[in-house]
């Protein structure tokens, strides 16, 4: 079958990695991954952890040091649930796509009473709806939000939603920021958000392997009272370790190196510039794709700075388009999810990506699907 031929093993050929993650590493990050290992109890490693933690705080808009768990982002979502909710507690899960649905499913797996609010794919959750749901299902112990829904390319108005929850309930605000932290501002402290989860391999442009969680004082208080069985993912134990410049158990040391390099890179560029670059690349993607007859799943007002889901012209197959982009142009994109698997492609523009990368991607798209 042609399946074998479509797998390009020539990693030395420069390729335009425009999928939604793991994202390309900057040169310093690549170099960092080849460094020799060190003990996570050594002074040298403690210095790295302290630099990483300090470098991360402004990305969350948070004073407190984030926690570093070795797992993928989904593990971080699970950590957010098991530290703050007990079986029988009630959570309101906002589901606007695959990742919003996953957050609710994790809670349900732990016996949480999940009230799911489905938002049509491509739309952003609405604060008025949230207010109504909080009243109707009172009392709610936590609201589960996805900041950037990677399956649809929608960025939620996180500040508005968090403020709404805080004004109208005592619920904790738990946020999946896996594809937003590092690409767009988050004002965790100012917005009254309790947990933001992210991961190393998306906008943070580091190797996969780290789930990073910023946790409010209120959520730590809740963790002290909540007795849902947990061990590895315990917030309080990890907070103590991070305060000592280390992690509870052996971390993905190489991922920590690459994250340190990536944070140095991001801060050298300047966070305002980084955020502006992502907004510009997203606009380029939407406008360029529209010129080739593709439409964006999200409205411009709700469009994600990190991923754009593009609906293909009638009759086109996303599998074919994805394969041709790779084989003919060396451009690697993701396909749609769920019902959009064959109808949409998703272009990632987060992390180590420049306008020239987007131009190459858009030119390839024009040649493959343009009319
Ligand atoms: C990628 C992603 C996840 C899942 O992260 P893993 O590291 O694959 O577990 C969850 N939520 C969002 C919004 C994502 O983009």
Report on the structure:
The protein is an alpha/beta fold. The protein has helices spanning 27-32, 43-60, 73-84, 98-109, 127-136, 158-168, 188-191, 217-225, 235-243, 253-269, 271-291, 318-329, 355-369, and strands at residues 16-18, 67-70, 90-95, 113-118, 142-146, 148-149, 154-155, 172-176, 195-199, 210-215, 295-296, 307-311, 331-335, 344-348. It has a 7-stranded mixed beta sheet, with helices on both faces. A 5-stranded mixed beta sheet has the order 1-13-14-12-11. A two-stranded antiparallel sheet has the order 6-7. Strand 6 (148-149) and strand 7 form a beta hairpin. Helix 2 (43-60) crosses helix 10 (253-269), helix 11 (271-291) packs parallel to helix 13 (355-369) and helix 12 (318-329) packs across helix 13 (355-369). Bound molecules: pyridoxal-5'-phosphate. Pyridoxal-5'-phosphate binds at residues 21, 72-74, 99, 146, 148, 150, 176, 178-179, 199, 202.
